[in-house]
Amino acid sequence: MIAPLKTRLSLVWLALSAITVISWWIGSKHGQQAFVSSAAITYSVILMAALKIRVIVSEFMEVRHAPPLLRHLMDAWLAFLVISLLGLYSIGARF
Among candidates 54, 52, 44, which has minimal Cα distance to 78? Predict the structure, then answer.
């Protein structure tokens, strides 16, 4: 029973599960308040989602074994996506 926990994918899966629970906990505010837009919460949840995307693509889609160009393109795409989302949120929050 202990042997499966030592595999790399099992540890990655546990880390992804922990990140999911943490982002849910941050985003939910435990239901004590009505929904209030918070830049810090939005930024943290988007950044945690980006981390999860990076880990999933690297580990489960095995991009970490791909040629360097593909890895760099994936990282550039993810950076563009995160910057775009944060930028759109920042612009939308002003209006």
Answer: 54
> Do residues 71 and 63 touch, judged by C-beta distance below 8 A?
yes
DSSP 7: S
pLDDT digits (tens, 9 = 90+) for 7-20: 888 889 999 999 99
Among 46, 48, 40, 47, residue whose Cα is nearest residue 22: 48
59-75 pLDDT, tens digit each:
888 898 999 999 999 99
Closest CA to 59 of 1, 15, 4: 15
Q: For the CA atoms of 62, 67, 70, 73, what is the dihedral angle to 10 degrees?
A: 120
Q: What is the dihedral of CA 7, 10, 16, 18, to 10 degrees?
A: -100
CB 82 within 8 A of CB 50: yes
